[in-house]
Design brief:
Radius of gyration: 17 Å
Order of helices and strands: HHEHEHEHEHEHEHE
Structural class: alpha/beta
Number of domains: 1
Number of helices: 8
Distance between the termini: 42 Å
Strand order of the largest sheet: 3-2-1-4-5-7-6
Bound molecules: S-adenosylmethionine
CATH architecture: 3-Layer(aba) Sandwich
Shape: globular
């Protein structure tokens, strides 16, 4: 299997406009219309969710391998894996009873969950697309207009990435939102990896970075 390459960026540190953009997003509401398919998927899920069960979100779950693993780690919670890729979700393993997968766009899902006043126990962002080009800053989740909705869902947030700059910026954007961020490098054995991307990056010898914060 080929090694995967580390993302490279023209940025040599956090983006110079990070603070300005994050603060603007924290002070405004994002009004882009919601996609119909995300609304329908959220409505189906919401009909079966009760707020007396703890909710864990696996945001950008890909093939759902991490969703299955997280359901074993959090047996008292319902673990919801969300991804927009039908082809990735089609490769899901058999899930434990306390896990489910939803095809939706996260930029809609986070806003719908917030509007429905959901609160999460935990939220995982495992190896999100890095968008390493400086001009794509606003596509990274912490600089995206949906950032306040993601934060508003509360609970314990965990990001994992092999792109150190993403981890640094994510932590900085959390601090801008008055949350304390804990950044660490992970040292995992192959049998401890949670996702296919994590396994691939570990095999390729990449550093794996974890950022954690308590949102509420
Ligand atoms: C790099 S992959 C990581 C997948 C998995 N978490 C892993 O570590 O193996 C990023 C995932 O995020 C999903 N994704 C990216 N943007 C999304 C969006 N706006 N809404 C839903 N899923 C999205 C992609 O479809 C893809 O499966």
């Amino acid at each position: 299997m080929r090694d995967s390459r580390l993302p490279t960026s023209s940025q040599d540190g956090t983006h110079p406009r990070l603070a300005e953009i994050v603060k603007r997003h924290l002070g405004t509401r994002w009004h882009q219309p919601l996609r119909g398919h995300s609304q329908a998927a959220f409505a189906r899920l919401a009909a079966s969710v009760t707020m007396d069960q703890g909710l864990v979100l696996d945001a950008g779950c890909g093939t759902g391998r991490s969703t299955a693993a997280l359901a074993q780690i959090h047996p008292d919670c319902l673990v919801i894996g969300v991804d927009r890729s039908a082809s990735r979700l089609a490769r899901a393993p058999i899930l434990p009873a306390n896990a489910c997968l939803v095809r939706a766009d996260l930029t809609d899902f986070w806003r719908l969950a917030r509007a429905a006043r959901w609160t999460l126990e935990r939220q995982y962002l495992l190896y999100p697309n890095p968008w390493p080009k400086a001009r794509h800053l606003r596509r990274r989740w912490h600089a995206h207009p949906v950032w306040p909705d993601l934060l508003g869902l509360g609970g314990q947030l965990e990001l994992r990435t092999n792109f150190e700059l993403y981890a640094e910026e994510f932590a900085a954007a959390l601090e801008l939102a008055d949350r304390v961020a804990d950044v660490q490098m992970l040292s995992l054995r192959p049998d401890q990896t949670l996702t296919p991307f994590e396994a691939k990056y570990l095999r390729s010898g990449h550093g794996l970075f974890q950022v954690r914060a308590i949102l509420s």
